[in-house]
Amino acid sequence: MSQALREHLAQIVTLTDEEFTEVLSQFSTQHYRKHQFLIRTGQRVPHLYFVVQGLLKLVYTDSAGRAHIVSFALEDWWEGDFAAYLTHSPATLALQCVEPTTVLCLPLAGYQQLCARFPQMTYFFMVKFARGGVAAQQRILSLLTLPAQERYERLLQQYPTLAQRVSKTQLAAYLGVSRETLSRLADQRSTPKIVR
Questions:
Q1: Domain spans of the chain?
Q2: Sorted alphabetically, which CDD domains does this protein's record hold (predicted)?
């Protein structure tokens, strides 16, 4: 698990062995079962999570009780209710395992200590948060402007293994369509087009 984090950090910053040992000391390892919650709506958010193995989904439940999947987090991704984590406020999002999952957990005090102690970790988190912000903007724009078929095609291009790892109901909730619509989109994709 430490090797996965080390390789992940090395994509952006360089740490000596001693520095990495100190960085790693701020994390704890947790194992979760399928369907288990890491974060529940309304509760405090004690950690930011780095996915070592498994798959998570971040969910917003509206006032009518409809669940909207905000994101999926695959291996080598960070996930959490960032606003609640950084502001000590109750979670507005729930984080749940789609598969049995192993994560490295970073408490806020650990995050703050890493940023204060290591400028390269401040830079690392700045890059990760910026990339996450860009991805969130692109997702919002796609939901606002693209037809469902194109959103589906983009998802399959960006994350080719995701469709095999999540249910059609979950994939539909992520795309903002009904399960029936998702089935039609999948059928249209697999039906060869006749050119005249």
A1: 2-118
A2: CAP_ED
